[in-house]
Fold this protein.
Amino acid sequence: MIRNGKVEYGHSDVDDKGNINKNIQLYELLDIRTTISPCSTVSNTIFEQKVDLFYTSDDEPVIIKTFIPLDETSGCVIFKRVDAASILSVFVLADNNSLQSIEIYGPEVWNMQLGGTNEMGIKDMDPIYIESGVYEVVPYCVIDQEGLPKEIFNSISRYYDVNSTEYLKLPFKWDVDTFKVK
């Protein structure tokens, strides 16, 4: 409660010392999972992997912002380095893409073909080279929840919504596959 421009503690959900005095439960809006096949390759070679991105919203639709190519068959992923500094992570983006808002209703699966062509005969992206290491395959998406103050994201990183590993600083929980480059 605010009276005469000052916070008066001891009212409602805040005790007289300014601490929240009741538990607040946060609900999971979106379940995110990835798989990659095959799950290993040799360094300094062109690799062609298939990545599946699984999104599931339970009760209500969830709007996410992600990079979508023109064929709308995939998005983008970050190979998050887990055996070295995250600065060595690799941002993998499909060709001819744009940042778009997409509404997720229930379970959805997006396929991404790294190098080569996907099941629809469309080339998602050029083959890439990646150095030896172990990586998590993290999908890039930001939940676009109405009314959420931009300051929350900016307090974590001002660059969460650009092509960079700054996105990895957001407090997301993923169930992601790992990828080993030998």
Observations:
- The chain has one domain: 25-181.
- Helices lie at 150-156.
